[in-house]
Amino acid sequence: MTQADTILDAARPLDVLADFPAIPAGWAYLDTAATAQKPRPVIDAITRGYDTTYATVHRGVYQRSADMTLAYEAARRRVARFIGGAEEEVVFVRGATEAINLVAQCWAGTQLKAGDRILLSALEHHSNIVPWQMVAERVGAAIDVVPLTADHRIDLDAMAAMLTPAHKLVALAHVSNVLGSVLDAKRAAALAHGVGAKILIDGCQAVPRLPVNVVDLDCDFYVFSAHKLYGPTGLGVLWGRSELLDAMPPYQGGGSMIDRVTFAKTTYAPPPTRFEAGTPHIVGVLGLNAAIDYVEGIGLDRIHAHETALVRQTRAALSAINSVRLFGPEDSAGIVSFAIEGVHPHDIGTILDEAKVAIRAGHHCAQPLMETLGVEATARASFGVYNGPADVEALAKGIERVSRIFG
Fold first, then answer.
1. Would you call 345 exposed, middle or buried from its count of C-beta atoms within 10 A (0-12, 13-18, 19+)?
2. 83, 84, 93, 346: which has the fewest Cβ within 10 Å?
3. Cα–chain center distance at 379
4. How many CB atoms lie within 10 A of CB 55?
5. What's the CA gap between 220 and 218, in Å, rounded?
6. Mean pLDDT throughout 388-401?
7. pLDDT at 1 over 90
8. Cα separation, 404 vs 321, whole angstroms
């Protein structure tokens, strides 16, 4: 394929709605930032996993268990390739929230001391705030907050001015779940490392939309969830530098994560097994493997171009309605948050639902950001590979109806 063909392919609208059986005709599903709908290959992989190939992993000597173990570990390698890491650096957990808590407890909880500082930003999800608060309270560390720019990005110039050698950890969202603003994660990592701090990047909203290479970004930890990547719920990924994982104690005790157990002493397996106590979400991992295949089959550059076009269309349509206030930058990644003067976002969501348009309404697990924006809540439209211009038209028509009702 020539460069011209690649550019043309990226600009061509996606036409994959038929792959998503849970989206009926005429329903505009605009809540992908909360959870993505599942394509048929993911559903089929999960069904096969339970229906014809199911067995436990790592423990059985019979053939089916051995085959399932091979498939499970092949999925780990698939995840590693997807984000540019090594397979021994990929830890399967129950979700991105657990991944952040694991780092908070097993790295920050053992490395930080009284007087150390943690740096977050004003737009973080609660999952990237509360675990650090819990650790800071326990060890006597303090938390600082990077402000936003006028167009609602993490202000990296302000971050550079705020960082000191007392900062030991920086934790930032790669893409905001409310604003869609994209972090220059490579610069953020360089700033953090400049004062000797480690950096964790929350990639939940990034990996379904943008190519990610953790080595190129030079981060220390990267986390994401499967269900926002068109995969199953109950599964997430923690990627960590091998030297950091090697030095971290276990997060939970139980089966699988051990080397040898006696009543006198237990020794632990090396990473990633050390952090995967108990029977894992076996079939979920197979589903994640299929989801990555699906996304890469389309191409993340194409997905990003497709969602960027929908964002432009949405912002243009909503900005033409006088009562609408838009948040976030013009080039947000797949997410548009807005408010209508005098109308609660829950009312917006309810009226849109009557028109078969599904959006998110509330504080989006980002109450500090709502305070920064000066609102209690926002309405949020977020896009996936299955959305198209007709969904944006339905949203805009619904917002016009809301304005008439409350006008």
1. buried
2. 346
3. 19
4. 17
5. 7
6. 97
7. no
8. 11
Let me know the angle formed at the C-alpha of 289 by 229 and 175, rounded to the nearest 5 degrees: 25
pLDDT at 407 over 80: no
Cα distance between residue 207 and residue 202, in whole Å: 10
Alpha-carbon span 207 to 83, nearest angstrom: 8
Unique residue bearing structure tokens 């030297």? 243
Q: Are 310 and 383 in contact (CB under 8 A)?
A: yes
pTM (2 d.p.): 0.96
CB 231 within 8 A of CB 43: no
Summarised one tens digit per residue, pLDDT across range 17-36 is 999 999 999 999 999 999 99
- pLDDT per residue over 169-190, tens digit each? 999 999 999 999 999 999 999 9
Q: How far apart (Å, rounded) are the C-alpha atoms in residues 241 and 225?
A: 18
Where in the sequence numbering do the catalytic residues fall?
A: 365
Residue 47: count other Cβ atoms within 10 Å of its Cβ: 12
At 12 the pLDDT is: 65
Shortest CA distance to 56 belongs to which of 282, 236, 285?
282
Rounded CA gap, 37 and 23, in Å? 8
322 by Cβ neighbours in 10 Å (0-12 / 13-18 / 19+) ranks as exposed
